[in-house]
Amino acid sequence: MVQVYSTQLLTSTPQPEATMSKISVALCTFNGERYIKKQLQSVINQAQSIDELIVCDDGSADKTVEILADITRSAPFKTQLIRNEQQLGSTKNFEKALQYCTGDIVFLCDQDDEWHPQKVARQVSFLNSNPEIEAVFTNASLINQQSELTGSTLWEQIGFDDNSKKKWQAGHGYELLFGSYVVTGATLAIRKDAIERILPCPDIDKQLIHDGWLALVLALENKIQFIDECLLYYRIHEAQQVGTGQHQRPTTLVERLTRDRLEKLTPLQNKVEYLTKLYALLAARSGFDKHKLHQLKAMKEHFEIRTHLPPNRLARVKPVWHELTQQRYRYSSQRWWLPLFGDIFE
C-alpha cells in the first residue's frame, strides 16, 4: 500500500505549528570563497527565516572566513562560526556542525549551492504536516559555475525516476540506498532528535558519508520522505568534493579482457568487506524489521560469489548462471550483462 504524504503549499498566513519550530542551518566550509557569498545571501533571503546558522570551517586558507564574518554580521539570525584546529574532512565536519545546532529542525547546507527562496518554508511545512516523518529531501536544479541553469535536475542525473519515487513512497527506499546514492545532503532537512539518535556515521567506507548514513537508517525506519520539487540550485564545478561530477569512467571491453585478474578482484573484495560491515552495523540497530536487510544480505552474497569464481573459465559458468537466474547481477550494474560476461571471460 502506497502512503501519501502532505506537500501542500504554504498560504500567506503561516500555519500555527510552523512558528513553534526553531530552525537551524548547518553549513560546512573549506576554501569556499568563490561561491559562499551567493549561498549565504540565498539563506538570508528565505521566505521563512531561520533562527541560527552554525558554520564549521575545516581550515580554509582563502577568504572564506572573512566573507562569512562580513555577511553574517548583519544577518537577521544568530550565527556561530567554529574553526577546526585540525582538518576533519567533509563527513566529520558536518557531524560536528550538526551537533552544535540547537534547532528542532536542521537544514544541511553546502558552501557552493544556492537555495530557492521557498526551500525552508516548504520543508518545514512538510515536516509540520507529517509529524511521523523525521527528514525530508528534495530535487535540485543543476547550475554551472556562472549560476546558469543547465537544463537538468539532480534526480535526472542520479536516476531517481518515477518508478524509484513510487518505490520510496511505498516504504522501500532503503532498497535503493543499499546500492546507490539518492539523498543529497544539501537538499535535506532533518529533526534534531533524529540526528542525535543516528550519528555518528560509521567509518567503514569513504563512499558512506553523513547524508548517506542518515538517509539509510531513516529509510529502514520509514521516516524519511521527499518533496518532488527543485528547492535548491545545485552547482556543478570542478572543485566539488562529492556530487554528480564524481562519476568514474566505465571500464571498456578491451580493458576487461586485458587487465590483470587481481585488478578486477580487488574492488569486488572491497565491496564484500564494506557490505559485510554495513550489514553487521544495521543488524545491530533497533527500530525496524530486520527482514528489510534481506536484499543487503543477497548483495553481499552476490559479490562474495563473484570474488571466489574459479580460475577455470568453464567452471565459472555454473555459478555465473546461478547469479543470472537469481537476477542478482543487477546489484553489480544497471548494465548487468557487462559484469556477467566479464566474470566468464576475464
Structure characteristics:
346 residues; alpha/beta; Spore Coat Polysaccharide Biosynthesis Protein SpsA, Chain A; 2 domains; nine-stranded mixed sheet; 16% strand; disordered N terminus
Summarize the structure.
42% of the residues lie in helices and 16% in strands. It is of the alpha/beta class and 346 residues long. Mean pLDDT is 90; it is low at 1-19.
Helix proportion range:
40-55%
Tally of alpha and pi helices: 13
Global mean pLDDT: 90
Shape: globular
N-to-C span:
44 Å
How many β-strands, per DSSP?
9
Question: What does this entry look like structurally?
Answer:
- The structure is a single chain.
- By secondary structure, this protein is α/β, with parallel strands linked by helices.
- The chain folds into two domains: 16-245, Spore Coat Polysaccharide Biosynthesis Protein SpsA, Chain A (Alpha-Beta Complex), CATH 3.90.550; 253-345, no CATH class.
- It is 42% helix and 16% strand.
- It has 13 helices and nine strands.
- It has helices spanning 36-44, 64-72, 90-100, 119-129, 154-158, 162-179, 192-198, 210-220, 253-258, 261-283, 294-307, 313-325, 337-345; strands at 23-29, 52-57, 78-83, 105-109, 114-115, 135-143, 149-153, 189-191, 224-235.
- Helix 6 (162-179) packs across helix 8 (210-220).
